[in-house]
Specification:
Length: about 110
């Protein structure tokens, strides 16, 4: 009888990007704001420590928001953060939905 041995590759399990669920949440919000005419462009940046999603009103401007995921957070409760145009961190959280609530509040104001 054969015995199977599972080999775990720790490097394969490391996060290197937004996962499918995270990217879906961000793109759903992005799509809505594009349909409202508020946002026009986005960019994704990656380095060995962070992954970011930049949101632009116009492609030639600085990003309105930067949604950042830290790949190696020092504090497990601060995996995600959101920055404004000035680079000021508006919120940090371990939950992406908490970060996106800041933008969702603006979205609700547009609907009214």
């Amino acid at each position: 009888m054969f015995q199977y041995q599972v080999i775990h590759n720790k490097k394969f399990e490391e996060e290197k990007f937004f996962n499918k669920k995270e990217l879906g949440e961000i793109l759903n919000l992005y799509g809505f704001m594009v349909s409202m005419g508020e946002w026009k462009d986005y960019a994704i940046f990656i380095n060995k420590n962070i992954v970011g999603f930049n949101i632009y009103r116009k492609a030639t401007e600085t990003p309105l928001y930067q949604i950042i995921k830290s790949l190696h957070p020092k504090d497990k409760n601060q995996k995600y953060s959101i920055q404004n145009q000035s680079g000021i961190i508006l919120k940090r959280s371990n939950n992406l939905k908490n970060i996106l609530q800041i933008i969702n509040k603006k979205k609700l104001q547009l609907i009214k």
